[in-house]
User: What shape does this take?
Amino acid sequence: MIKKLLITGANGQIGSELTLAFRKIYGHENVVATDLNPVLRAEIKDNGPTDQLDVLDRKKLESLIDQYQIDAIVHLAAILSAVGEKNSQMAWNVNMNGTINVLEVAREKGIKRIFIPSSIAVFGPTTPRDCTPQDTILQPSTMYGVTKVAGELLGDYYVQKFGMDIRGLRYPGIISHETLPGGGTTDYAVAIFYDAVKHGKYECFLKEDTKLPMMYMPDCLKATTDLFQADFSKLRHHAGFNVGAFSITPQALAESIQKVMPNFEITYKPDFRQAIADSWPNCIDDSAAREEWGWKPQYDLDAMTEEMLRVISEKHRQGLI
Ligand code: NAD
Ligand code: AKB
Assistant: This one.
């Protein structure tokens, strides 16, 4: 039974919503939200404990675990694919040394349960791109992907070697309206909604037919909390479950937006992120997640689009964006 949970990278796109989801399950006082950024979002700061933490600072991590008597960690802090290609040393440092710090401190302090997200970025040009299997070739062509493969292997190693309970999901691109994404290749699928509402048009940095797996935030929260609470003894995989929802091209997303905003226009100007996207799968076989812990997504493309446009339009009306 988990009593006190610490989240790293809690101010990011996923952390800012996952923190609130975990606080609903485990109690507001029992989820400690931390981030490198000392200024956490008001929604997080105002409804539970928070602290500043650089995951590279092992001593501070140790002292927070002691101070709050932490018995589970959700390790979200990371550098994503596009920022990681601009600064590969930083991506290696934060993603690898941050992850090994979390695993080692947890091992030393007897913390068993750790959640570390992985990504579709573990796959690369040699992986089958259609309906990418759970157990397949992991030869990514980005530094971000290299660190995510190593993170999965480390997670599985700590399960086997030290009997720890490490879990992880290979998230697809996550689409949400609360916090902007932090520098990935799938970020276009969020930016398009803001530009649609504010300007009625969007210039996309990927080609119109670039198909990638995506997921709406409520499904991301559901997948994460469901796996986190699943019966560990029933899991055959651990650190890198495939999870799918829907796969889309920029053109398909634009057409979905046009169903609500017929005058919306999209143009295409691919940049360095095109090569990253071209190395990732079109769609994902998530049958292992469905069989081992009952994964089932709830949102399809049009349901997600309608909700994204409604919420972002309302924020725009209120002058918040
Ligand atoms: P994000 O970039 O939005 O947020 C990352 C957070 O980590 C930021 O708040 C940042 O301040 C913090 N951070 C950066 N360096 C840090 C450090 N040294 N110490 C502590 N905190 C630090 O990322 P996200 O989208 O919320 O991603 C969370 C996790 O999910 C990551 O592991 C990412 O690889 C994974 N993931 C995300 C997506 C997605 O589409 N959002 C898809 C696949 C996997
Ligand atoms: C990125 O584009 O880097 C992330 C991811 C799929 O890991 N959204």
In short: The chain has twelve helices and 14 strands.
